[in-house]
Amino acid sequence: MKSAYKEIEQVIGDDFISDKDFMKAAYSRNVDPAFPDRWADMIVRPETPEEVSEIVKIANKYKIHMVPRGGGADLVGGSTTQGGILLDLTRMNKIIEINEDDYYYIVECGVTWGALLSELHPRGLTSGVTGPGSGFSATIGGGLSNSTAGGGSTKYGLVPDVCLGVEVVLPNPEGTIIRTGAASNQYATPFCRYGVSPDFTGIFMGDVGVMGVKTKAFMRLFPDPQYKASRMYAFNKNDYNNVFKKAHKL
């Protein structure tokens, strides 16, 4: 583990890797207190896809398991790991492009939904799905990795439904960086997900990071509706059959 630590430190610098107890404790849980603490062996915070690729190579070399983490807003324990490398992707937080003509945007997967919507709403635009129920501190990558529903899902679907493609670092020994959808063509704009090849994007949706580390997302953009309305329903009992019946009528 010490050899792996030193090699990763050479890739990203000593400011962005730690095996100190206070750091491991800070990353030992997500927002759900029902799950027990799980301590990684080291916390690693890359900034570029190339750095992620090098880290994947080192993890493969030393047979160390690795878990990617976004905003840590996960509700099912997926953003922690017992031992191994916890890969914090929140330094990858650039909004690369907002294309108002072709209605797509490109972000690094550590961008939060709050930061994204703060850029879109003043322009009269929306991402459709406005992030998972765990809040605006969640990241785009987390929404894709967990196939989450949230604000806008009744109209626009789940987060993967508005995804046009992703850039992913594969977990193979070479740490290969690939792109899916139209983004896989270096001469094309990332305007569509289907029709250019088999839907390789789908392999990485809802995978909780198992199939690869998402570094960029190419997403659909929509005009922000002028008028909006929403409703919330409460039930007195945990009668799920009744909930489903009411939802079906709606």
Range of strand content: 15-25%
Q: How much helical structure, as a percent, in the residues?
A: 10-25%
Largest sheet: 5 strands, antiparallel
**Helix/strand/pairing category:** alpha+beta
Choose one word for the global shape.
globular
The end-to-end distance, rounded to whole angstroms, is 55 Å
Indicate the CATH topology of the largest domain. Uridine Diphospho-n-acetylenolpyruvylglucosamine Reductase, domain 3
Strand-helix topology:
Elements: H1 2-12, E1 17-18, H2 21-26, E2 42-44, H3 49-61, E3 66-69, E4 85-88, E5 95-99, E6 104-108, H4 113-120, E7 125-126, H5 140-145, H6 153-156, E8 163-169, E9 177-179, E10 213-220, E11 222-223, H7 240-249
Parallel strand pairs: 2-4, 3-4
Antiparallel strand pairs: 1-2, 5-6, 6-10, 7-11, 8-9, 8-10
Helix pairs in contact: 1-3
Describe this protein's structure.
The chain is α+β, with helices and mostly antiparallel strands and 250 residues long. It has two domains: 2-88, Uridine Diphospho-n-acetylenolpyruvylglucosamine Reductase, domain 2, CATH 3.30.43.10; 95-223, Uridine Diphospho-n-acetylenolpyruvylglucosamine Reductase, domain 3. Helix content is 23%, strand content 18%. The strands form three sheets. A five-stranded antiparallel beta sheet has the order 5-6-10-8-9. A hairpin with a 7-residue loop joins strand 8 (163-169) and strand 9. The longest helix has 13 residues, at 49-61.
